[in-house]
Write a structure and sequence with these properties.
single chain; 10 helices; mainly alpha
Length: about 200
């Protein structure tokens, strides 16, 4: 299995930090605190860089909330990370890691992956349906409380197989293992949530 030689310094690069703050601010730019941070982008990018490089830095436990999502009103428990530094740090991490990790994902994993949206999924389903000989069965499945059932230790082991720099693993662990509870709280996983695809690929979903 290929391991990527990404370093923590790449994640903490000042330009990457600026991009991370801008990405994290999307759809939040009318909030007073976010506006103040954007007005002092260079200053806060430097602070974010220091946070990422500080081996003793800690993420906040996200604000807890419960929503009823979609037409079926599916109940979800959320943890909303604070904007700075947590959300910005999540973006800084994922901007560097995502291109490497996505290459290893199942080609028909369409959740939260750029270029693999509804139309991508639809095209592939239509292609499968035309292949009458090899397309005989269809199963619609849902794993109850999937995020809450994720084994954090297994997820970390899988992550270590991909990324060499132990400092990145330690930082990423801190970003979502905020409580002693089992599983990963929805919303606290660094966006995009595609990192969970490492776990899904391992268990075959």
């Amino acid at each position: 299995m290929k391991r990527y030689k990404i370093t923590l310094e790449q994640i903490a690069d000042i330009e990457n930090c600026k991009r991370a703050i801008k990405h994290a601010s999307k759809r939040k730019r009318n909030r007073p605190r976010v506006m103040r941070i954007l007005e002092r982008l260079d200053d806060y990018a430097a602070r974010l860089r220091a946070f990422l490089l500080d081996g003793n830095a800690h993420f906040h436990d996200g604000q807890r909330a419960v929503i009823n999502e979609g037409t079926h009103k599916k109940r979800r428990e959320l943890a909303k990370p604070v904007f700075f530094p947590d959300q910005c740090a999540h973006w800084a991490i994922m901007q560097i890691l995502s291109p490497c990790l996505i290459r290893t994902f199942y080609p028909y994993s369409c959740s939260c992956i750029k270029g693999r949206g509804v139309h991508y999924a639809k095209r592939n389903v239509q292609r499968f349906l035309k292949d009458v000989k090899n397309t005989k069965y269809c199963a619609q499945l849902d794993i109850k409380s999937f995020y809450a059932s994720v084994d954090k230790d297994i997820l970390i082991k899988l992550f270590k197989r991909k990324i060499k720099d132990a400092r990145i693993t330690a930082l990423w662990r801190k970003s979502f293992t905020l409580t002693a509870a089992q599983g990963c709280r929805w919303g606290i996983i660094p966006p995009p949530r595609s990192l969970i695809s490492i776990y899904r690929a391992r268990i075959g979903i």
